[in-house]
Write a structure and sequence with these properties.
It is a single chain. This protein is α+β, with helices and mostly antiparallel strands. The chain has a single domain, classed as Aminopeptidase (3-Layer(aba) Sandwich). The protein has a seven-stranded mixed beta sheet. Helix 1 runs antiparallel to helix 3 and helix 4 crosses helix 5. The protein starts with a strand and ends with a strand.
């Protein structure tokens, strides 16, 4: 159930957990070099345009989600309506992958954003990440177009209210 997910703001106390997750092969496959990613994520703790969350279910932390402002962005996402947010996430706990959590928690998080008036949410998974692309599709995202990012090729996906 979507209501079973809790998204709480990440704090410095969560950094050891996030660092452990980033070093796991199933996270590294799509997020890249753990030390570089850790430096980026920990560096964003006080970035006003970046909201970072630890998501959990049944009192157990499952993974990390970041939600960032895209308005006025000149990235590969193109010009977007004011209030548009981008999201990225990973499930850190390997034994929780393949159980439907990805699509359910994405839908839960994005539905709440729309209830708060956001006009659009976007994401850009690696096109080779079939599991991630399917999770976003199940959560209501539509494939938009292939784009090139600083991290390489990506599939731009969009969900509107």
């Amino acid at each position: 159930m979507a209501s079973d997910y809790i998204f709480r703001a990440m704090t410095a106390a969560d950094l050891p957990l996030v660092q452990r997750w980033l070093a796991l092969p199933h996270v590294m496959e799509w997020w890249g070099e753990p030390e570089e990613q850790y430096a980026l994520l920990s560096g964003d703790l006080h970035e006003p345009s970046m909201d970072q969350f630890i998501f959990s279910t049944a009192g157990r932390p499952l993974g990390y989600l970041q939600c960032y402002d895209l308005a006025g962005s000149t990235t590969a996402f193109g010009q977007q309506p004011r209030g548009t947010r981008g999201i990225d996430l990973f499930i850190g706990e390997l034994n929780m992958i393949g159980r439907g959590h990805g699509s359910a928690l994405i839908r839960c998080f994005v539905d709440e954003l729309f209830q708060n008036g956001l006009p659009r949410v976007m994401t850009d998974p690696d096109p080779a990440n079939g599991r991630g692309v399917r999770a976003y599709q199940k959560a209501g995202f539509q494939k938009d177009r292939a784009i090139q990012t600083s991290d390489g090729p990506a599939l731009l996906m969009v969900r509107n209210p």
